[in-house]
Amino acid sequence: MQERIKVALDAMGGDYAPEATVQGAVEAVKEKENIKVFLVGKQDAVEAELSKYSYNKEQIEVVPASEMIEMAEPPVMAIRKKKDSSIVVAMNLVKNHEADAFVSAGSTGAVLVGGQLLVGRLKGVERPPLAPLLPTEKGVTLLVDCGANVDARASHLVQFARMGSIYMEHIVGIPNPKVAIVNIGAEEEKGNALVKETFPLLKECTDINFIGSIEARDIPKGDADVIVCDAFVGNVILKLYEGLAGTLVSVIKKGMLSSLRSKIGAVLVKPALKETLKSFDAEEYGGAPMLGLKGLVVKSHGSSNHTEIKNSILQCAAFNEQRMNDRIAAAIQKEAPGSDGGRE
Amino acid sequence: MQERIKVALDAMGGDYAPEATVQGAVEAVKEKENIKVFLVGKQDAVEAELSKYSYNKEQIEVVPASEMIEMAEPPVMAIRKKKDSSIVVAMNLVKNHEADAFVSAGSTGAVLVGGQLLVGRLKGVERPPLAPLLPTEKGVTLLVDCGANVDARASHLVQFARMGSIYMEHIVGIPNPKVAIVNIGAEEEKGNALVKETFPLLKECTDINFIGSIEARDIPKGDADVIVCDAFVGNVILKLYEGLAGTLVSVIKKGMLSSLRSKIGAVLVKPALKETLKSFDAEEYGGAPMLGLKGLVVKSHGSSNHTEIKNSILQCAAFNEQRMNDRIAAAIQKEAPGSDGGRE
After folding, report:
1. Does A192 touch chain B (CB under 8 A)?
2. Which among A29, A133, A217, A229 could bridge B239 via Cys, Cβ 3.0 to 4.6 Å?
């Protein structure tokens, strides 16, 4: 049998932990024989959940961690102080090569800080971005960056484009993915200072398929496979996507219940509509990878249910099988052989 | 009879000009007796359209302009060179006090440049923002800025907050409007450099009702009445709003037509749905004002139909009746009595 991919799961992270995390882990190991999950968290609570299921005992192991990092805690302080928190213990498994990947639905800030401080950057990577998949009319688009790099530089965005391109090609399976930069017009001379500086650098990259600017209105159409921007803009796009989709669906539901006639219609369209909107639901696509680290770090949505947790774990297997970190390290090194990767 | 508000309309601007512009003007003067519209554009084309309607001749006057500024033209050059374009001729009417307001569905860039260069800023205003209304679950939110100030400074955003607040209170009729800054988290320490610098300045403003940060996910809920951000972020929000709403509605329509059962349902829900989605349609609310100029400049959507043009014209009447520019000038002057208003 091939060697198992080892995933350290923050069993205490997210709104529905540890129920959803434990259930997701059980479902993942049942679906793939080549995965082993370390359930990291409060031993009693995790074992109590785990006792509800039957599964292959070789594929799940509980690793005790007595502390928890709360959503509102300042991340740097939390990572430094709470040495026995589920996030720190699980990330240290990756750091010490006892696990290949880390998955958490907990505090995004703590995951971003822990990724940098504990797991560490690959040589040459200036800033590791967080890259969620956005649903579009045609499939999905990778949005790089939604992480901590709010005042990013042009060189960061160029690396985001390279790393994102590799991810879409090898994990999502889009050959020669189209890369675009978020802009406020299609022309090259448009944009803020960062975009104007980054655009010509992206044009020079021979290892990516750069198609130019994308306006926000065209993102939902799926005109690009990878879109790069600083994390402030990326966060606005991601959050508005979620918020507006939620609001529109609720407005539409209210509209359907406004008369007897439309109520009857609503009953008839409901199943088809549910199916269609599912394809527009980020939950189906697993978590957002933090790219450019020495191990895989996946941030799952805070409101993740067991399916999203399961998908995030399964995603780790693909990442490892594709030797993603080797590919990213090679691409970054090729471009910047002199970089020490640790300079700020 | 009270004096008529004089509106200079760019009759050649927008995808459906001059049909939609002329029809919108006729509808506006029929609805309000105290409006006079100057239809500025190619005389033959405008008069041919106008001959289709009957209206009070005192309320519409054709002003010839032989040139047109195209959407793709570099705006600064176009405004400087095309002295006989509909935009330049119409804006000069405002500059020379022959008209109170200017409305165009043409090139946004040309309108922004013309607003600054021809109409001119009110004393003390550093950067005039473009401020469209976004539909929300609760009504509308004013988004300041979506104009040309992509690399804005903190002092600009503070003025945007003041001017936006005055607009929402006196034109849209929201008493003590809630003002928020677009951010990537609710806490004061979150944000990029611009937001971190602006936040404490907004907190100090005693003349606005500042409620703190708003995350993009909460914008569609209508949690704030005025939201401020630099124009790059504002443009991303506005365009994603339009694009995502359009995509979702088309995805939902497709879903409804996917089975016979749901097709029947679709027929039954259609009228109610149409009514609901109408409330989520920016078209109903007129154009986006450019705030802080010596005359009113309103940018209507490029795809404006006659209703949107009509609403943009009617909006000018409210602006004038409320003496908006006096209010803005007073608010800006009060805060910065030493400013000369023309310094870059």
Report:
1. yes
2. A217
